[in-house]
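Lab notebook page, bench 4
Experiment: in silico fold of construct C2
Operator: M.H.
Input chain length: 197 residues
Purpose: comparison with the prior construct
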Amino acid sequence: MKADRGTVEAAGGILMRRGRTPLFAIVQRRKDNAWVLPKGKLKPRESPVAAARREVVEETGHGARVHEYLGAISYKAGRRPKIVAFWRMQETTASTREHARDIKVVEWLSLDAAVARLTQPLERAFLGEVGAHAVKSMRLANVERTPRKLASRIAKKRATTNGAHLDPPAKVVRPAPKPGLLRRLFSQRAAAETTGR
């Protein structure tokens, strides 16, 4: 039996396109035709957020602006544990280049359609869980970028539609994990699983 070489670290993005109905980018891998979220392994000395942006741009061919950290998933990749951290991203430019050769096609789908199309149950559950938060964050960010007076009028109109004054929604931001924290956590979990605790 080979010794465990450690946790595989990867990063990716929930890439979104603005519109009346926000769209999510998912990709189809050429090797197995699986529909997945854009993601990939970290290069040596590369930060997770830089890797996430690089992988999203490479796999989709679209420019991306990184926003808040959304969470992480973990699973076994062969015999090694793998952890993938995800950030919300927004498309900045239409296709600027060809997507990576290992990607067959990129699709832009609504949240429900994207969740249904994903092949891996863990990714379906993850996107189903964070997708609504990502849409809300994107819409809130769009309102914050409008001129102050217009944003104020929009907020007042929304607050008085039901006849009651409501506070504007609080912006929820999840901090990115500390460097190495996820690796330590999942290394401990993998060790516990192998010793049968």
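Observations: The chain has five helices and seven strands. The mean pLDDT is 81.
Next step: discuss at group meeting.
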